[in-house]
Amino acid sequence: MLRTNVNNWSAQEIWHTYIQLPQAEAAFRIHKNDLSIRPIWHQKAERVQAHILVCFLAYALWKTLEQWQKRAGLGNSPRTILEELHRIQCADVIIPIAGEAGRELRIRCIVRPEPEQAALLDRLGLRLPERIRTPRVA
């Protein structure tokens, strides 16, 4: 028997909501443990809303990665995937512009992933871009 203060829901709606409780508790555990999100005290309402949005987006990305990982047969721990992929780096390639002293072309490129990382990206169905943004002349 469940007791509630909600009077305008059917028994089925109450039960459906109640059985989602473990999922909500698991989400909070992920926020606290895996994403290392802690309470932050903001003074302005828009900052509170922005903080909630960032936390929600982090959780949504975490759950998406978890689903991709399961679909690829790679277990169910996004932390291990992130630990492997966080070592992928980007580098700035700086090319001096001939005839223009002090001017250069800066291209931000992603370093080629190691074989294990490339295999992991392939299993997840992800492709790295060659460049992060368009070249910039400085």
Give a verbal description of the structure.
With 138 residues, this protein is mostly helical. It has two domains: 11-82, no CATH class; 88-137, no CATH class. The protein has five helices and three strands. Strands 1-2-3 form a three-stranded antiparallel sheet, with no helix packed on it. Strand 1 (90-96) and strand 2 (104-110) form a beta hairpin.
Weakly predicted, low-confidence segments: none
Give the end-to-end Cα distance, rounded to a whole number of Å. Answer: 69 Å
Shape: elongated
**Quaternary structure:** single chain
Helix percent band: 40-55%
> Helix- and strand-based class?
mainly alpha
Tally of DSSP β-strands: 3
Strand order of the largest sheet: 1-2-3
Mean pLDDT: 83
SSE pattern, N- to C-terminal: HHHHEEHE
Cα Rg: 23 Å
β-strand percent reads: 5-15%
Major sheet characteristics: 3 strands, antiparallel
How many helical stretches?
A: 5
Q: How many structural domains does the protein architecture include?
A: 2
Break the fold down into its secondary structure elements and pairings.
Elements: H1 11-18, H2 21-34, H3 45-71, H4 78-85, E1 90-96, E2 104-110, H5 115-124, E3 136-137
Antiparallel strand pairs: 1-2, 2-3
